[in-house]
Specification:
Blueprint: H1 2-8, H2 13-37, H3 40-44, H4 50-61, H5 67-82, H6 88-112, H7 118-138, H8 147-170, H9 174-198, H10 204-246
Length: 247
């Protein structure tokens, strides 16, 4: 326990995390280029390591691990691994894993971000709903076999977008800003996914999808850390006020 406390009191923890951030984006760039060049070898040696690096960053940075977030990025990692293959069964498993990631992420947000009311939720959902409707109409013929996956992902991200955007509009805190940006990038990656199927000959689109996704995952990590700091601050403040009252 003493070694554990010494590690978390070590001011160099931020240096470790900053180094891992550099490694994360270096590997992300390799993955983006590999996707553009359609190099399965470099995709295989880059994509599976992105989420584990985020996990290691979280273990170093966090003082109290959140199992919901850890489980969520665990399913995100599984989806990344499954999506490396182009076989239908692995694409299906990847879609299910990504849906489970979204469900757990929504659960985490509901538990940690104050609900601002149904009006803000509805207003926040509108731009995401319009985006999904537009892009589905654009490429509905190409999405026939993936309609269910696209629909379920759309429902979850529209709700996620409405919740996060509504929270940001009424409480534009630093953590809510990162949350809104991460959800916006997740939604944008889904829109690019549709464009990729509509304009199948443009390889750059898949690379953009990967780029938006890896940035979104990093912003989610930042949001989680900020929320944990905010929670510790309020717990410490309430404890201090309670001590003062007892005196």
């Amino acid at each position: 326990m003493k070694v554990y406390n010494n590690f978390y009191e070590n001011p160099r923890r931020n240096e470790y995390v900053n180094g891992l951030i550099g490694v994360y984006f270096f590997i992300a760039i390799i993955d983006v280029i590999a996707e553009f060049l359609q190099s399965q070898f470099f995709v295989f040696i880059s994509k599976p390591f992105l989420i584990p690096i985020l996990f290691l960053m979280y273990i170093i940075k966090s003082r109290k691990f959140n199992l919901i977030y850890i489980s969520a990025i665990g399913f995100a990692w599984l989806s990344d691994v499954f999506f490396i293959s182009h076989r239908l069964i692995f694409l299906g498993l990847g879609s299910v894993s990504f849906l489970l990631f979204l469900i757990l992420f929504i659960y985490f947000i509901i538990k940690h971000v104050k609900f601002q009311g149904y009006l803000s939720l509805i207003i926040g959902c509108i731009p995401f709903l319009l985006g999904y409707y537009f892009f589905y109409n654009l490429a509905q013929n190409q999405l026939k076999e993936m309609f269910f996956s696209y629909f379920m992902t759309g429902v979850l991200i529209v709700f996620l977008g409405g919740y996060s955007l509504g929270s940001y509009m009424l409480n534009p805190s630093k953590s809510n800003t990162f949350l809104a940006l991460s959800v916006f990038l997740l939604a944008t990656s889904q829109f690019v996914f549709v464009l990729e199927h509509y304009f199948a000959d443009i390889r750059l689109l898949h690379s953009l999808l990967i780029l938006f996704y890896v940035i979104a995952q990093y912003l989610i990590f930042v949001f989680v850390i900020l929320e944990e700091k905010r929670k510790r601050y309020h717990e410490f403040r309430n404890k201090s006020l309670k001590i003062d009252t007892n005196l």
